[in-house]
Design brief:
By secondary structure, the protein is α+β, with helices and mostly antiparallel strands. It has one domain (3-160): Aminopeptidase (3-Layer(aba) Sandwich), CATH 3.40.630. It has helices at residues 12-27, 33-43, 46-53, 99-110, 126-135; strands spanning 3-6, 58-65, 68-79, 82-90, 116-122, 138-147, 150-160. Helix 1 (12-27) packs across helix 3. The two termini are 29 Å apart.
């Protein structure tokens, strides 16, 4: 049986490995390879993760089973009553086993004062969209994220409680 654990700087290498695999699996064919490579080498580098993990206002949590990190979530309060889910990933082969739901449940419980949870999901990430809709998120708009010369279309989702 697995458990949800807090993640900190000592977990950065393991989290980096999880994100490299999960990101490539999620976004290959949706985003250009240049963006997937930037995510792997810059955004999700162990050094970047360690720097982000030093902030005590950001929740980093993982799902560990049999000694392996199988999933992760990163969230933070962004305004009074509003929490943003920045990332939620589960390794391929471990999806559709309830791990994502456990990570979301943990995030919701971690921020008891929150009345609204918000997130962005890339257009084309059908597995992610489906997961969040089943969890109760409603999508109400589209935003554009510009990274160098690329534009990524994201659905804007929210969950009220």
């Amino acid at each position: 049986m697995g458990e949800i654990i807090p993640l900190d700087e000592k977990n950065a290498e393991e989290l980096h490995e999880l994100l490299v695999v999960s990101w490539a699996d999620t976004y290959r064919g949706i985003l250009p390879d240049s963006i997937i490579n930037a995510a792997s080498t810059v955004w999700h580098s162990a050094e970047t993760l360690r720097r982000q993990m030093k902030s005590r206002v950001v929740l980093f949590a993982g799902y560990r089973e049999d000694g392996r990190l199988l999933g992760m979530v990163r969230a933070a309060k962004v305004e009074d009553g509003i929490v943003r889910i920045f990332q939620l990933y589960v390794l391929p082969g471990n999806q559709r086993k309830g791990i994502g739901t456990k990570l979301m449940d943990y995030s919701v419980a971690y921020f008891p004062e929150a009345t609204r949870f918000v997130l962005d999901v890339s257009v084309g990430n059908e597995r992610g969209i489906s997961f969040y809709e089943k969890y109760g998120f409603k999508f109400s708009g589209v935003s554009t994220l510009k990274i160098e010369k690329e534009e990524i279309q994201n659905l804007e989702g929210s969950l009220e409680r």
